[in-house]
Here is the input.
Amino acid sequence: MNDRRVRDLPGGVAYHPGELAVQRRLGQADIAQRVGRMIRPDIPAAAAQFLAEQPMIVLAAADDAGRMWAGQLAGSPGFVHAAGERAIEVEATPVTGDPLAESLRGTRHVGMIAVQPQTRRRMRVNGVIAPTATGLRIDTEQVYSNCPKYISRRGVEEWVAGGAPEVRRGTELAAAQQELIARADTFFVASADADGHADASHRGGNPGFLQVLSPTRLRWPDYRGNSMFMTLGNIASDPRCGLLVPDWRTGTTLQITGTAEITWDETVFTPGAQCAIDFTVTEVVEISGATPLRWTDPELSPVNP
Here is the structure.
């Protein structure tokens, strides 16, 4: 699994065809080339320090059937840390019932995002994982930061050590799950390109921006971000996609896998969007007590449309 996406020259990232197609359609190819120069395979000192402060990360990977999943890992600050210039160690494993557990048992491509809601900072990593005795190791291929746009500010209120998580599975969204989605101001997206390079990204907005169209259909707006369009480019290349919707107050997580399609029809866009994503649900996993972290109520991003 050699890195084919980061050049050794100062040109930065080598975008795949899906990313390039979306960049051209939205007239941002030149911006994407400039922004892409910040992507590097090694971990800068500031990024290593940021990682060491985090109590939570989100990972994205495909399972053995090729379905994409996004899941959350939590631990005391320091549980995720740099282990050299191009490696990250994570001393945690998914809770019982997390569908991401299967994906983390072997060597495969993974996307990771660390978000610090208190400061609206985030960092993304793409690479290859291998299991370790205490969790997993990521050999990094792409390391970069994102702007603070659309991140809701919130802080950790308490750490609740509980019993065994309760797991509910289904093929469509129950009424209570639809209500959780309707009030969400944050969710995470797992996607991959045609070669299987996985990516984890953050999506934020005012409650209601993630719309429930039916028990098996969701839609969300895509707001302008860093102009690289890694998530949209992946969806254009491979529609398989996964969502993680956290309930920050209770520690419950909603993991959904399915397929996504970019909608360019401007009649369905919400204000401020450059396109929309229609998502078809194929499987839902709800885990109560998935994380011990309990967060404060949000201060919504001032740049939300």
About this structure: The CA atoms of residues 150 and 302 lie 8 Å apart. Helices lie at 17-25, 29-35, 45-52, 100-103, 175-182, 230-237. Residues 6-11 have pLDDT under 50 and may be disordered.
